[in-house]
Design goal:
With 360 residues, the chain is mostly helical. The protein has one domain. It has 16 helices and 3 strands. Helix 2 packs across helix 12, helix 8 packs antiparallel against helix 9 and helix 9 crosses helix 13.
């Protein structure tokens, strides 16, 4: 079984839970994505060799009233100055209709070039911007436009690059699936990069916005890493049945089948992937509660304008005296405990794989 839309709802119903903030955020995301899709389609703002892709809370289905629209035009075609003009047109169009610009940093609100994402993995040419766009394209991206051919094509090529260049990945018998270490190592690298950049931003911005970034790092940023880890481990623990078919005879066949398997995770939200893992590996009710109740509380804080603003203004020196910050720490600690229990104390095979591939 692969992750699919509705896994969070299915888990909520199975546990008799009520995660109201999650539901509100999911509905808000669906409404906003539909409106964005109709807008860019109606204005014919996106060239045929590009995809209008959204990231962040809009892609994760965690929209709050103050959410940005993090977007990029994903280019998968010949060099054309018209791509830059199209990005300017989309940016102006979104502003005209009252959508907030992406946050500072320049990662979103412009072009993302498929050649850079696919061919510059690692080494000096792999910039912070490039790895961020690449991993987020894999772990938290959506296209509001139906029949998203370009994004899907780029994702397939990118995933096959990770699999084909993972030396020895397809060497064992085709029924003996393995964890794609090249991909997993890049996901781990990005997670650690986010943690390092968090410290750098605190210094560079003199603590401005620190409290809100701290909360997000401990919750939504950690969530996308957990989802990426689960996706990679699934290749070994829950491989697609088609690996055993006679058609899966060559290394090319193997890479194609596993890329399609991983694509199903790329087309799911991080929460859906973690919900899938909870259902698939039989997480106990208290483990599910320790993951999804604090995440619901996290979105509840972000959906509260007063509390969000207070966190955004909070400086590190004030944090330990602030009741709201103390509550966010408790939420983050419980979420961490839930994820730890899922990966290390739920299923023996999952625990062994997490220790072997996720730690060492």
């Amino acid at each position: 079984m692969r992750p699919q839309a509705g896994s969070v709802v299915a888990l909520e119903e199975a546990r008799g839970a009520s995660w109201r903030a999650l539901g509100d955020a999911r509905r808000s995301a669906a409404e906003r994505r539909e409106a964005l899709g109709q807008l860019v389609l109606g204005e014919r703002a996106v060239p045929e060799d590009t995809a209008f892709v959204v990231f962040g809370s809009l892609a994760r289905e965690e929209v709050t009233p103050d959410s940005d629209v993090d977007w990029a035009l994903l280019v998968d075609g010949l060099a054309d100055d018209g791509h830059s003009a199209a990005a300017h047109r989309v940016r102006a169009l979104l502003r005209e209709h009252g959508h907030k610009d992406p946050g500072p940093g320049g990662l979103f609100g412009g072009l993302a070039i498929s050649h850079e994402l696919v061919h510059r993995i690692g080494g000096d040419s792999d910039s912070n911007r490039n790895i961020t766009q690449r991993i987020l394209l894999l772990l938290e991206s959506r296209s509001p436009v139906p029949k998203d051919v370009v994004r899907t094509r780029v994702l397939r090529v990118l995933l096959k690059r990770y699999l084909v260049d993972d030396f020895g990945y397809a060497m064992p018998p085709k029924s003996a699936a393995r964890v794609p270490r090249f991909l997993l190592n890049d996901i781990v690298r990005y997670w650690r990069t986010m943690a390092v950049d968090f410290a750098v931003k605190r210094r560079d911005r003199d603590g401005a916005g620190w409290g809100l970034r701290n909360f997000k790092l401990r919750m939504s940023r950690k969530l996308i890493f957990a989802a990426g880890l689960a996706a990679c481990l699934s290749c070994k623990l829950r491989p697609p049945a088609s690996l055993a078919l006679p058609e899966a005879e060559t290394e090319e066949d193997y890479a194609t089948i596993m890329a399609e398997h991983l694509l199903s995770f790329a087309d799911s939200t991080p929460l859906e992937t973690v919900a899938w893992a909870s259902l698939e590996f039989g997480a106990r009710p208290h483990v599910v509660a320790d993951i999804f109740e604090p995440y619901d509380a996290f979105l509840g804080v972000l959906r509260n304008p007063e509390e969000r603003s207070r966190l955004d203004r909070l400086h590190p020196e004030e944090a330990l005296r602030d009741p709201l910050f103390k509550r966010t720490r408790e939420i983050g600690n419980r979420f961490q405990d839930g994820l730890s229990a899922l990966f290390f104390a739920t299923d023996s095979e999952l625990t062994e794989a997490t220790q072997r591939f996720g730690v060492f």
